[in-house]
Structures are given as structure tokens and as C-alpha cells.
Amino acid sequence: MTPTNLSCVLGALALAASAPAAVEQVSVRVDGLGCPFCVHGVDARLGELAGVDRTAGVKTSLETGTTRFTWNTDVEFDPADVRRAIREAGFTPRDISVWVTGTVRRDPADDSATSLLLADGGRGPAVVLRPGDQADRRESWRDLVKLSARRRGAHGARRVRVAGVVRARNGDSSWEIVLDRWAPLEFGALVTAGVNELAGVQDSLRTMKALAALDTVIHAEADHATGRVKIWMTGKDPDLDLLRERLASAGCTVSFIRVEQGSDDSLPE
């Protein structure tokens, strides 16, 4: 039977060319903070947002006038919700900065390459990337444009982590990122796992969805006939315990895991 390809599965999960990027970390400058009670109010209001990771919590600093929190990539990120929560706490939100992971693609609506799309992972619309004004940011932008033009396929070296400032586009909820910096997610290891309960397409969908929740996974394929899942991951030393947990969350029993050091030649086209 033909292996189930992660890109195909993610397409079925609405993670296609217009798919979202995965917002991971958020930082907001806040005006009007004057005392510890102000900090508590901001922390409490932001903590009510569905996407805020309550385990990590909200960390608002009176000294720097900023608040930081981790975002759950299973929840759509809308900067309007963040601004609204801060205003409801009685303060004024300023710049929102984010760390986002995704795959860089050319923007089909922009032939001049003055913008790029960052997609795949998380919930919400694809994020538009634009260059910043500083010289070093323009240099980063040129590198990112070159990366987007590489024709290796939908995965591999084009998957990046990007930092930038959120800017509104057509309305408060439509947004883009003005690039600050970026780093590639380098392919490091190919993991092969033998699993049970991989009898059909729905099993593969569930398994691939669980793997897609890990930002260290670049690409994956499931083979029903052999009961094996091949997973291309970042880093030379992947967290196998976490990988087992994700597979277990999809109802899979792992019979074995084999790790090979990665090379670009082994990346799927």
C-alpha cells in the first residue's frame, strides 16, 4: 500500500498553501503599568485567552513594560484578541512581537517578492512576511527570498522559525509580520518507528496530526503495509520519549524506534 505522506495528510487537515503558521511565543509592549496590581490585572486578563499556555503562564514585567507568554499552536492566534484583553485590563497595548514557525513560500499575489507567506502548522490564515527597514533586516530578507525560491519540495530547508512585529492589514484581525530575524529548522535525524493500530487512512490521519503538533517534525510518512512511520526531525538527538508520547496520544503502540543521522539527500522531494 502506498505510504501516507504528511503533506497530503496535512492538506486534508486544511494545512495547504493558504495554511496557517504556528505562533509559539508572544511579547507585547504595554503602556500604563504602574504597580504590581497592574501586572496582576494584565496577567489575569491575558490568562483567560484560550491560546495562552497556562502551564508556562503570563509573565508581565513592570520594569520593562512588556508581557510575554507561550501560545498553544492548536488555537488560532488573533492579535486583536490580545489587544482587546489588555485594553479590558485598563491598559494600552503597543507593539506585538511573535515567534512563528512555518514553511516559507512565495506570495502568489505578489510577483515582486516584496512579501512572502509563512504557512503550515497552527490555526488561522497564512501569515504575510514583509522586510524591515534596518540594513541587517534587509540582508535577512534577501536570504529568506532566496530560500523561498529553492525547489526541493514542500518540506526540508524552507521550514523556518521567524521573529517579527505584528502589523494590521485589512482590519484588526488580518495581520502580517515585519521581519526581525529568522533561523532555519535544520534536518538532523530520520526516525523510523514501528507502530500498531495503523490499519487505515483514519489511523494515519490521527497519527500524522499528533506528529504535526511537534515543531521538531519536518516531514513524516506512514506505511500501512509495514506498520512503520518515518519521521524527518530537526536536531541530531531527537526527544524519543516525547515522540513516543505523541504516538501514544494517537492510539499507537510503539514496537521499536530506530534513529539515523540525517542528510539532505534523504529528505523527500
What does this structure look like?
There is one protein chain. The chain folds into 2 domains: 163 residues, Alpha-Beta Plaits (2-Layer Sandwich); 81 residues, Alpha-Beta Plaits. The N terminus is likely disordered. The chain is globular and about 60 Å long. A hairpin with a 4-residue loop joins strand 3 and strand 4. The strands form 2 sheets. Strands 1-11-12-10-13 form a 5-stranded antiparallel β-sheet. A 5-stranded mixed β-barrel has the order 5-6-7-9-8. With 269 residues, the chain is of the alpha+beta class.
Number of domains: 2
Q: What percentage of amino acids are in beta strands? A: 35-45%
User: Which CATH architecture of the largest domain would you pick?
Assistant: 2-Layer Sandwich
First-last Cα distance: 19 Å
CATH topology of the largest domain: Alpha-Beta Plaits
Order of helices and strands: EHEHEEHEEEHEEEHEEHE
Approximately how much helix is present in the residues? 10-25%
Number of helices: 6
Largest β-sheet summary:
5 strands, antiparallel
At the first level of CATH, the class of the largest domain is Alpha Beta
Quick one: how many beta strands?
A: 13
Strand order of the largest sheet: 1-11-12-10-13
Gyration radius, rounded: 20 Å
pLDDT < 50 stretches: 1-18, 151-157
- Overall geometry comes to globular
- Give the helix/strand class: alpha+beta
Calculate the mean pLDDT score and round it.
81
